[in-house]
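Handout, page 2. Input:
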Amino acid sequence: QVQLVESGGGLVQAGGSLRLSCAASGTIFSINAMGWYRQAPGKQRELVATLTSGGSTNYADSVAGRFTISKDNAKNTVYLQMNSLKPEDTAVYYCNLDSFNSYWGQGTQVTVSS
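Output:
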């Protein structure tokens, strides 16, 4: 079983920064990719950023240039550095690990005030 534990969410003013962390633990045979998704109230969950095991990244157009995804392979941890935050970035952010199965964290709330 794989567990994903997110941390780093919180309340920040527009223009500020936050860094989310997601630590994976359990029996992990291989990782295809890890990533971050978010879900705002009344909206569907959407991709924010992904990072493959080969190092390729993919960002949503709305966050490209402001957010950076990175990982520490030794710690099985993925990070999301979020800069120049906007009120529209307010959402619950979920970590995802894509392996033989897909695993999700419990989510961490990010609130950006105007």
